């Protein structure tokens, strides 16, 4: 059993490095970086297997639906203040409108993935429209960042066989989730969001956390959420693809 676990971890990860120095002792910080292979894998227990290489109490922070000038910079500041690195799954339309902000996210040391060009629910679209959206998303990503994408999260987590196959053929990893705060629901205070997130983390033990940098309430609550994670002993792992 130990040998099998070792083989799985080796296949999914190419490096697990310590956090960068220079962070204050009283912040959450990024405990280490996990580097994944560029492959057509799929992770996140909401729909798939757990992400290999994570220990109990470790979380990967991810943000969807940006970049948005009104809220993404606030999210970046909160992360910087706590010396935390995250993964941003961006939509193609705002990427095309705000390429400099997409690059700002990347240049701050965060990882950028894809989240659909128009944030459509692909379970409700014909196959040709799904493929068209993916092509537009990849083009927007390459135009903004100048490199090929490695990761994708489905809008609404509405995975479709058509796009799962297309992403797999291109060696693009699909990222689902393990826990979240339902921060797309309006009218929630920082404490409400923290309580929801901790409740889900109590069930999952850690894993991939879903938040939304396009939500004003999330941007405002993020300093409190990060402080809460630290107080509860969670460790942040940053994802990269080789």
UniProtKB/TrEMBL annotation:
Gene3D superfamilies from the UniProt entry: Glycoside hydrolase/deacetylase (3.20.20.370)
Top-level taxon in the UniProt lineage: Bacteria
Keyword Ribonucleoprotein: no
One Pfam family here: Polysacc_deac_1
PROSITE patterns the UniProt entry points to: NODB
Entry's Gene Ontology molecular function annotations: hydrolase activity
Residues annotated as domain NodB homology: 57-237
Source species: Pelomonas lactea
Enzyme class: hydrolase
Keywords: Hydrolase, Metal-binding, Signal
EC number: 3.-.-.-
Signal peptide coordinates: 1-18
UniProt protein name: Polysaccharide deacetylase family protein
The UniProt record lists the keyword Hydrolase: yes
Top-level taxonomy: Bacteria, Pseudomonadati, Pseudomonadota, Betaproteobacteria, Burkholderiales
């Amino acid at each position: 059993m130990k040998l099998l676990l070792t083989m799985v971890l080796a296949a999914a990860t190419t490096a697990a490095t310590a956090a960068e120095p220079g962070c204050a002792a009283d912040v959450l910080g990024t405990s280490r970086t996990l580097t994944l292979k560029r492959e057509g894998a799929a992770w996140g227990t909401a729909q798939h297997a757990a992400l290999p290489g994570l220990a109990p109490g470790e979380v990967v922070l991810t943000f969807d639906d940006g970049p948005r000038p009104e809220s993404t910079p606030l999210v970046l500041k909160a992360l910087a203040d706590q010396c935390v690195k995250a993964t941003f799954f961006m939509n193609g339309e705002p990427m095309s409108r705000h390429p400099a902000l997409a690059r700002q996210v990347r240049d701050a040391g965060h990882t950028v993935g894809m989240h659909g060009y128009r944030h459509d629910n692909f379970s409700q679209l014909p196959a040709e429209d799904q493929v068209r959206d993916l092509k537009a998303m990849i083009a927007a990503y390459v135009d903004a960042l100048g490199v090929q994408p490695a990761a994708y999260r489905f809008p609404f987590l509405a995975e479709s066989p058509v796009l799962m196959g297309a992403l797999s053929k291109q060696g693009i990893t699909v990222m689902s989730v393990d826990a979240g705060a339902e921060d797309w629901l309006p009218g929630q205070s920082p404490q409400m969001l923290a309580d929801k997130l901790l409740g889900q983390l109590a069930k999952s033990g850690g894993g991939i956390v879903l938040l939304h940098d396009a939500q004003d309430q999330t941007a405002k609550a993020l300093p409190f959420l990060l402080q809460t994670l630290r107080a509860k002993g969670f460790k942040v792992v940053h994802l990269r693809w080789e």
